[in-house]
């Protein structure tokens, strides 16, 4: 259950909302800065939703001029523990939140995740834009679908073998998109999917480039906001965290030419016969894209970016069976994409 513990409406850019730990709860501080398209502070109503697999659930509402700070009590659900250098590291399920700011004829939305294992105050800026007039009112509701979502790519060669491991508690970050109903412009945010079960492959080889997919649940929701006699509708598409992620997974492969990329973010060189274990951490940029479509209530398809949250890391282990030589593994975006071959 989520509950409000404090609200402070501020006239200047400051905040006293804080993050505090309880045994199974996190007090999450959030500061919302609201501006019009010209960058001027604007008074607006606020709603905070938790983005669940059943759709958005309102957990707080209020209003204020320019800047509002509040604190929420959020649940901490532990999904795994690791021990690193003798220290126990707890992994908690990420909580996906949506902040909606709206006033007469204008609205804006911010979507993001909080991780109870890494408490930090969240500050978001929302730009309120004009809501276009629509010829007909949409039907508010929630619709869901599953899509196989790319999460990892890696390439091997003759006598080079690689295997991957995604432990329970690893997190996939997926772009969300929202807009006022009838607007041609989507605004991006993100949600996180925390894995409830681990997935580990055998060693794979050959002159192949492999892509790993996890089946992820997505939500399309239309919501109605009332402003006096006026109604505002907005829609969003987001990946949702369930209790069985990933419910399914698979990999495919294509042949590749064997040429290591000329430009890469990082690399390792490993002696023949040795095994290199590489942390797959992901990066700030989206490495992959997934197309998510809904046929009802109206045909809609959006492309969402995909990456990985750095901690806890997944792993890619690279080994070889020759007695001499060196294997170079060149990677991008925290080795969420990599290529290995002899040099």
Describe the 3D structure.
This protein is mostly beta strands and 343 residues long. It folds into 2 domains: 1-130, Carboxypeptidase-like, regulatory domain (Immunoglobulin-like); 138-343, no CATH class. The protein has no helices and 26 strands. It has strands at residues 3-10, 20-21, 25-36, 43-52, 55-65, 67-75, 78-84, 87-92, 95-103, 106-114, 122-130, 141-155, 160-166, 171-180, 187-194, 199-200, 208-227, 230-240, 249-255, 266-271, 276-280, 288-294, 300-308, 314-320, 326-332, 337-342. The strands form 4 sheets. Strands 12, 14, 15, 17, 18, 19, 20, 22, 23, 25 and 26 form an 11-stranded mixed sheet that branches. Strands 1, 2, 3, 4, 5, 6, 9, 10 and 11 form a 9-stranded mixed sheet that branches. Mean pLDDT is 91; it is low at 1-18.
Mean pLDDT: 91
- Helical proportion? under 10%
Extended strand count: 26
Tertiary shape: elongated
Q: Helix segment count?
A: 0
Distance between the termini: 56 Å
Q: Strand portion, in percent? A: over 45%
Report the C-alpha radius of gyration, rounded: 22 Å
In terms of structural class, how would the helical and strand content be classed? mainly beta
- The parts where pLDDT drops under 50 for at least 5 residues are 1-18
Number of domains: 2
User: What's the helix-strand series?
Assistant: EEEEEEEEEEEEEEEEEEEEEEEEEE
Largest sheet: 11 strands, mixed
